Amino acid sequence: MKSTLSWLVVWACAVGGIGKSVSAQLTPELTLTRLACGTNADTDVGLRFSDTYAYNGVKIQFTYSCYLVKHGDDYLVWDTGNPVGTTATAPKTSLIDLLAQVGVKPEQVKYVGISHYHGDHVGQVSAFPKATLLIGKGDWDVLTDPKAAAVANPAPFANWISRGGKVDPAAADKDVFGDGAVVMINTPGHTPGHHSLLVRLKTMGNVLLSGDLAHFRENYDSNGVPTFNTDRADTLASLDRFKKLAENLKATVIIQHDARDVTKLPAFPASAR
Ligand SMILES: [Zn+2]
User: Fold this and answer.
1) Which position among 103, 109, 151, 261 has the lowest Cβ density within 10 Å, counted as fewest Cβ atoms?
2) Tell me: the pLDDT tens digits for 74-93?
3) Which 3 state secondary structure label does DSSP give 100?
């Protein structure tokens, strides 16, 4: 018969082992990497980025950013930038090639998340036909409405529109991996189904990726509404919610198109964790 002490050791090891495996399941490795998805010369933002003439004569260098989120063994690509090609704003290296540089194959990408349907965010989405498409329901409804082709180009989404791939349209917030670590935040107004992304990193802390809720810092700080947004009131309500989220979560806000925000994350191929 075993002594009380040896039973205690067996019990402690079992509990310790269970505790370890449960905590490993609860806290999968989470990293965030910025991928360059196009470049631009200075843009005169006085022309289209304020419906109150707020930025007359202001020039801002826009960048086009995509992101890779690693959650345990699963990957999410957030926004897919400009299409590869010969236009001035085309990325120098395709998303597929950038992912290869960090050892990720397109078929490993479980989710491709799209902040909204504009061409500079969806240009390379078709490179991930096996991924589940995560997109705001309001945007998906536009993309799948034949009468709305003049508003949004459905061609990059042909694989999902023809049901060749799974799509999960988000009518509200969307907890991507089910553990609260990565959440698509419903921020309509720029488009009907626009979403931003919250990533709750262990070391860096909370990060909020703007989508196009704002296009540059001045635009964010002054609640500027571009003339081409679909709903002014929704934009202002979304900005209000996003700023409160950022404050309460002490989040690092990254405005995806603002070249000055690129250095808030480590330079590729390094990732924030
Ligand atoms: Zn946009």
Assistant:
1) 103
2) 999 999 999 998 888 899 99
3) helix
